[in-house]
Amino acid sequence: MVVAKNHDPYELMEVSGKSQAQKHIVQKGETLEQIAKEYHTSTKSLKKWNKLNNDVIVSGQSLIVFFH
Length: 68
Known about the structure:
Elements: E1 11-14, E2 20-25, H1 32-38, H2 43-49, E3 62-67
Antiparallel strand pairs: 1-2, 2-3
Protein name: LysM domain-containing protein
Organism: Heyndrickxia ginsengihumi
InterPro entries: LysM, LysM_dom_sf
């Protein structure tokens, strides 16, 4: 398990058309699985959207989460 630091997590961004993305800054102790659950998505989707090859995330890392 990889853990990360505190964060100020949420910033909305317009993506295209009806889709939006939210930036999530990884905080200390978070895992990719926890973040996926928070946004009602899968770790597979998070990895695809953020071009991650594995489940390793670090404190302060910015992740994009897409939604409608």
